[in-house]
Structure formats: structure tokens, C-alpha cells
Design a protein that fits this description.
The protein is 83% helix and 0% strand. With 140 residues, the protein is mainly α. Helix 2 packs antiparallel against helix 3 and helix 3 crosses helix 5.
């Protein structure tokens, strides 16, 4: 199994290197950005699927681990749900002035991603601060 994963890893790395070289080599082709973006989407989806599959594989048979994983997935869904509800998706002066302005749905998804990133960043900072304070209190 480990050998198969190593082969898979090297194939993904080789494809990424080829796409990166194509991106920088063919500067006058507008489609190169699309190729890089689609490859990024594929890698992102693959990372999500593999994280869920391997998480379930490692947690199989352990109800406590499955419960923790379900709570984590629920938290992530809640963060993105709140972010989607907070996102406006309206045009700004910059996007309205573009020759081909993005759709409101695209702007809503962009706002959702930004708000989710802000929420997760704030949560990470709070976790770092809380952990530092808690360890200081415990070590006294």
C-alpha cells in the first residue's frame, strides 16, 4: 500500500511540474491560466476526498474517533454556512467597471471564501492565545 501511495505521489508531483512549466513557458496563451486553475481545483477536491477517506479508514472501529470527525466536519460546514449567509455578493466599483464583470454567484462564493478564511484565521489566533495562556497557568 505504501509503495502504491508513493507512486501516486510521484505521478501527482510530475503532473504538477509539467503544468507549472507549461504555465511559465507559454506566456502568450491565455488558456494556460485556466489549465492551472483546473489543476488546482482537482488537487483541492482530491485532498478533501483523501482526507475524508483516510480519516474514516483510520477511525474505523473506534466510535470516539468517528464522533470527533463528525463534529469537525460539522464545524467546517457551519463556518462555511455562516460565511455564505454573511457574504453579500454585490458588485463593487471595481467589479462593475470591468468589461466582463463576474456574476453575482461568483462574487458571493468569493466573499464566502474570504469570510471563512477570516473566521478560521481568527479561530487559529484564539486557539494559539488560549493554548499559551492555559499552559502558562498550568505550569505555575
Amino acid at each position: 500500500m505504501k509503495k502504491l501511495l508513493n507512486i501516486f505521489f510521484y505521478v501527482i508531483m510530475a503532473l504538477s511540474a509539467v503544468i507549472a512549466i507549461y504555465f511559465f513557458w507559454d506566456q502568450y496563451n491565455e488558456g494556460r491560466v485556466g489549465v492551472l486553475l483546473y489543476w488546482t481545483y482537482i488537487l483541492f477536491a482530491l485532498a478533501i476526498v483523501l482526507a475524508l477517506v483516510f480519516g474514516l479508514f483510520n477511525a474505523s472501529g473506534n466510535k470516539q474517533s468517528i464522533k470527533k470527525m463528525a463534529i469537525s466536519i460539522g464545524f467546517i460546514v457551519a463556518v462555511f454556512g455562516v460565511s455564505y449567509l454573511l457574504a453579500s455578493g454585490g458588485h463593487t466599483a471595481v467589479t462593475a467597471a470591468l468589461p466582463d464583470p463576474p456574476s453575482e454567484f461568483t462574487l458571493k462564493l468569493t466573499d464566502t471564501g474570504l469570510i471563512a478564511a477570516y473566521i478560521l484565521f481568527a479561530g487559529a489566533l484564539l486557539a494559539i492565545l488560549f493554548g499559551a495562556v492555559l499552559s502558562t497557568i498550568r505550569n505555575r
